[in-house]
Amino acid sequence: MSFLSRVLAATVIGSVALVAQSRAPEVSGDWPMYSHSLSGQRYSPLTEITPANVARLAPAWSLRLTQPAAGRRGGGPPAAGGGAPARGAAPPSASPEEAGTGSNPEATPIVIGGVMYLPARGNQVLALEADTGKEVWRRALPRYVTTTARGVAYWAGDGQTAARILLTAGPRLVALDAATGELSSGFGSGGTIDIGVPWNGVPTIYKNVAILGATTGEIPLGVPGDTRAFDIRSGKKLWDFHTVPLPGELGNNTWLENGWRARSGVNVWAWYMTLDADRGLLYMPVAGPSANYWGGDRPGNNLFANSIVAVDAETGRYRWHFQTVHHDLWDSDMPNPPVLVDIQQNGRRVPALASVGKTGWMFILDRVSGKPIFGVEERPVPKGTVPGEWYSPTQPFPVKPRALTRVDFDKERDMVRAMMAEGEFMEVFVDVPLAIAEERDVKGLYAKARAGEIANFTGIDSPYEPPEKPEVHVDTLKLTAEQAAALIVERLMARA
């Protein structure tokens, strides 16, 4: 029994029973989409591997998906002459096998009809015989086109158009012939379309529709986080859903003082979405608004941030929403879509969904109406004192189940004191500009951490490629109170 099933069973014991959502009988070992099914249950009915024989499993085959690392994570050395090429780019003479020096380190393969499809090397898509690992085809994408790190989607065709593999590649959606790997003619321009805002997830496929979220970054004002849908046959855009409602749209009045203008974030950044195929309802786990920890420039409850939003999958028409956090100030957004389940309650089968976000609460809703099945209470919450900030007076709390993790804070117990005993350490998270890092010898601290002289140090890295804005990240570094205060003060001065 899965963890979700155990929690639901504990919640509904007595008058309610959990039953599996209806699904077509399976006769193969296919894994046809990112989370196996549109309901997101990640459940496989295969029974050959059991607790009795799992210890005797042995590798069947393996395949290297990147060039030998040669000292660089996920790929080979830079191209000779000049700097390293853009991720996924290759010299014109390179073979498909040599073209990619990047990687897709967190890809989830799919398997259809015994063929495994997955992205690899940062700019390639592979089709393999799932039982042997033998290559069926390999497609190197056009120069400077890089694949998403997460996976690909499969569309079975419609009788006139052959089956396709779809994937995002930066600001593009790419369609390949599933049998040959060739770019699909008739889809956009040469098998690709421009989607504007990139998405690092896997397209959700329903009938002839491919549905995408948006990877916006985390700056307050910028590109919109709207969800988009495209016709898989032609590449034509079918609809988009404004996750930050425009004037005249439902929810716009929850953005006071024009906080909706040019607002970024409020996007589906989760790697996939779930969908009730019988009803044609798509469930979008919409994340919080940017900036993550400041909302003084966006007063109000900020719909549809931190919400599960249900829309018609073919038209994008709004059906219902449920907001799990009002006016998010702690980055408590939606990292995953809800899982679809059916619940037997008082002799009635209730189509439901269960959502667990970063807050540690599970919300169990009727997936047709969006109404809580076991109740949700709006409870008063403490108000902060940050100048210029706006605070929601209440937040939603599920009646059942109880929180899955610790959700309380006690100042006396949990607050780190500024005055600490000699030799005591405090744990901090700071972003340190490169110049300050060199001045304060943060790299020297890293060397000490590697030598075991500083505890709980997770490293330094530069997230910008190319490094036009070099910045060193120091995560959960245990410093003395004096060291921590100095770094934090200098960070604040650098921002001023």
Brief summary:
With 496 residues, this protein is mainly beta. The chain is built from 6 helices and 24 strands. The N and C termini lie far apart (53 Å).
Any overview of this molecule?
There is one protein chain. With 496 residues, the protein is mainly beta. Helices cover 10% and strands 26% of the residues. It has six helices and 24 strands. The protein has helices spanning 3-12, 96-99, 411-414, 434-439, 442-450, 481-495; strands at 16-19, 110-112, 115-120, 124-129, 135-140, 153-155, 164-169, 172-177, 192-194, 204-206, 209-212, 227-231, 237-241, 274-276, 281-286, 307-312, 318-323, 339-345, 348-356, 362-366, 376-380, 394-398, 426-433, 471-479. It has a four-stranded antiparallel sheet, covered by helices on one side. Strands 2-3-4-5 form a four-stranded antiparallel sheet. The protein is globular, with a radius of gyration of 25 Å. The termini are far apart. 36% of the residues are buried. Mean pLDDT is 79; it is low at 12-16, 20-27, 70-99 and 418-478.
Distance between the terminal alpha carbons, to the nearest Å? 53 Å
What is the strand tally? 24
**Main β-sheet, in a few words?**
4 strands, antiparallel
Q: Spell out the helices and strands N to C.
A: HEHEEEEEEEEEEEEEEEEEEEEEHEHHEH
Within CATH, the superfamily of the largest domain carries the name: Quinoprotein alcohol dehydrogenase-like superfamily
CATH architecture of the largest domain: 8 Propeller
